[in-house]
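Q: Here's a chain of 228 amino acids. Please give me its 3D structure as tokens.
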Amino acid sequence: MRYNYHIFDVGAFNGLDGIALALQNKNVMIHAFEANPSMIKIIKNNKKKIEDFLGKKIENFKVNNYAVSDKNIFFKLNIALNPTVSSLHKFSKEINKTWPGYAESHCKYIKQIKVKGITLKKYCEKNRIKKINYLHIDTQGNDLKVLKGLKDYIKIVEKGVLEAAVNKKKALYQNSNTVDQIKKFLKLNKYIITKIDSLDKNIKNEKNIFFEKKNFDEKYKIKTNYNL
């Protein structure tokens, strides 16, 4: 089946968010990207469990083992004790001051591995994708580089959400993107920010930034609630 509508889930982790989006949007192809090969196995296992429970295949979900960034090269991925905070970036040197308690429970490196990187421009060209209806990015400090990797393909993104540190001083990672950097990039590319909020009540140092095209007219309604 050829899909005309596409959701990109960049930084898919265990795949459950993307699978939820696939179940809600049956006429939309979900492209999930995860850099950690160990998590790819978990994503596929989770998909099979849900398929077995439902008694049917989830056809509109595709998983890709890539580190999405602004270059088509190999990267070094820092695997953390808590895999949710694994990143292409190293943890901030001030982490014990700015993230008290969090550092000890989450932010310890286990190992560093080599992973294949890709830009979304290259992926879209390869797969002949002409429109990204929704772009969800959660790449632990690398979200702006994911956007920059679109290059001229940025114009095919209808709307999306990504994360950013409130400022460099409070960032979880070295060289992490900040709210101001994201704002500047989106404005330059003629997007409007519809909402900015904290990740949750406990995490105040990072924000979710929701954006969409100026004069955006959603002809096909995409369901974006993945917290099922």
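Q: Can you summarize the key feature?
A: The first strand starts at residue 5 and ends at 10.
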